[in-house]
Design brief:
With 141 residues, the chain is an alpha+beta fold.
Length: 141
Amino acid sequence: MDRAALQGLLPHREPMLLLDEAALDENGRAVGQLHIRGDETFLDGHFPGNPVVPGVVLCEIIAQSAGVLVQDYLRKGYLPLFAGMEQVRFRRMVKPGDTVRTTCAMLRQKGMLLKVEGTAEVDGEVAATGVFLLMLKAPGA
C-alpha cells in the first residue's frame, strides 16, 4: 500500500501519518517504511543543529504499520488506540535521510485488544523494539 492507499485505511493525516508504504508479507507480518526527509515537525527543536527522531515517534511508526494486521477492522471504521507499551528499547538514533523499516507480528488478540511485537530498523540495524498493546475502538463508541 502506498501513502494514498494508507489514507484510505488509517485514520491518521498530516502531520501524523508516519508511513510511506505498508503491506503484509508472505509470513503474515506487517511491514512498513518511512523515509525521514528532515522537514518533519517532530524534528523542530529535537534537537537544534542535531535532529533526531524522538523515540515515541518511532513507536508510533511501528504502531501505524501494525494497522495492516487489522485492516478489516480499520476499513469498518474502528479506531486504533495505544493501550500500552512493554519492553520498549531504543538501540540507534534515527536522523534525516534515514529510511525506517518496520516489522510487526501479532502476538495475541483478545476481543478488541491486540498485543503486537514490533521492530524499527535503519540499514539493517535495529533502532527500536517493543511490544505494543493496541485497542480497537468501535465506530460510534
